[in-house]
Structure formats: C-alpha cells, structure tokens
Amino acid sequence: xxxxxxxxxxxxxxxxxxxxxxxxxxxxxxxxxxxxxxxxxxxxxxxxxxxxxxxxxxxxxxxxxxxxxxxxxxxxxxxxxxxxxxxxxxxxxxxxxxxxxxxxxxxxxxxxxxxxxxxxxxxxxxxxxxxxxxxxxxxxxxxxxxxxxxxxxxxxxxxxxxxxxxxxxxxxxxxxxxxxxxxxxxxxxxxxxxxxxxxxxxxxxxxxxxxxxxxxxxxxxxxxxxxxxxxxxxxxxxxxxxxxxxxxxxxxxxxxxxxxxxxxxxxxxxxxxxxxxxxxxxxxxxxxxxxxxxxxxxxxxxxxxxxx
Length: 308
Hints:
31% of the residues lie in helices and 21% in strands. By secondary structure, the chain is an alpha/beta fold. The model has no long low-confidence stretch (mean pLDDT 95).
C-alpha cells in the first residue's frame, strides 16, 4: 500500500506576523512533506503579504518541503481579483485554487494546480474535467464521507492525487458578512481587525451553553475539531495520498507527530487518546463516517489498530 504524505493546510486564522514566521520556522523541521501558504479567509489580513509568503516558501523548499500557495476562498472586490491574478501568475510554486475563478486563471495559463476543500467536487466527471484542465491534486470536500470517497477514487484519472482533510475545525460556510466584526457591533469595513483577538476563532455557544460554532471573520467553522486518525487504515486502503492537518494556535506540530506515528504503524488507540488531549473543545468525525457532522465515532471500527 501507499505511504500517505502529511500536509499542513493554510492558516485559517489571523495571527500576529511574528507568530506566523515562527510557526513556519518550526514546521520546516516537522514530518509534514507538503505545506500550504497564504491567506484564504480575508483580504484585509495583510500582516503577511504575498512577497512574505514567497520568501517563507523558498525557505521551506530548501528544507525539502513541497510548497503550495493557497488562494482566497471568497472573492468580492476587484482588488481581490487583481491579487488573485498576481498569485496565479507566480512561477515559483503551484497554487491551491479555493475558488473556481482561480481554476479558470490557472487553467488558461496552462498551469497545474490543486483544488482545496471549498471547491465542490462531487462526482467523477468533475474530477476528469478538472484533470484535463491541469488538476494534479484534489482535496475531498469536508462534507463527503468514505462511501463517496470510494466511488470517486474508482473514477479518478490516473496520476491524480487525493488529499483528505484529516484534522481541523470544519469550514462550514463563507459569507459576504464578517461575523466577527458583527459580534462586536462593528461594520465589516471598519472591523478594527478584531479577528486577531481570536487566534483560534470566536466561540459561539447555544443557549444550553453547548459549544456550537466558531466565528472566523467571514467563515463559520465547527466548534469541535474534525479528526480522522482512527480511519487511517480505511483511508490508506482507498488509496488516499495526502492527509491534511489544519493549523491551530497551539499543539499543531504535536498533532503532526501523532499522525506521523500512526502512518508508521503505531497503535491508533493510544495515539488517539493523546490527540484528543490537544484539541480545544473535543472531536467530531461524523461526516466522514456517514453520520451527522457533529457526531464522533469514538471506537476504532476495523480489526487492526495499525496502519500498515
């Protein structure tokens, strides 16, 4: 069977510039083979600019990492389209298209690309069409489960890599409104960059005091952290090539170590217990196992507890 690679997805939150630089300095020594860089949520988050991402990417590549530049997920203004064109025209790194407009730009330029989890690929015809346009790796949309993944794996074109969102809060929705600003009674155009006060997003609870959602600017996330460590044997058997870990403010590289140990054949149950202790509010994996997204299948469902 194939040995699955590990990737670090783009940082979805708004962190201080120095924190970002330090994170990628540490990531250079991690077990993750692939690292995605760039702002994917809000174009107003400019503490790290494209030139900075290119410089970070160059250093990571010198450390042996495959570097991908990620595009904005929701474009709303001409300035954002202009920035996207600049990103897609770079000749240093492949681009992860998180919006179909990026797919169009990259395809028209004859460039290979990756599609992120926000690009709706639900059937084999979509995979085959995008592969003809230059798609080299696709990320399974987070709302799809193992049964759909199996069907798509059977239909994917030869040479196309599959990546699965293996750990991170689920990106559930994107809006033209900034909910973090709204929660402070601020308009989006004068948000005062409140996102930076919430390096793991702003928690939203129900009236019963249950952690429900997380506000991250224009993005709405799950409060629970989606994680698929226990499903690694199934994912490997289905021929998944890459497992994506989405950065959280603390403990991310320890999470990478846990997934690395799991893919090397260490027992999953003790690793999973260790992993759960690093998650801010607990875990979910319902979508992947064909249940409600907030559900969590806590037991290893297969005979073996090792990835082989």
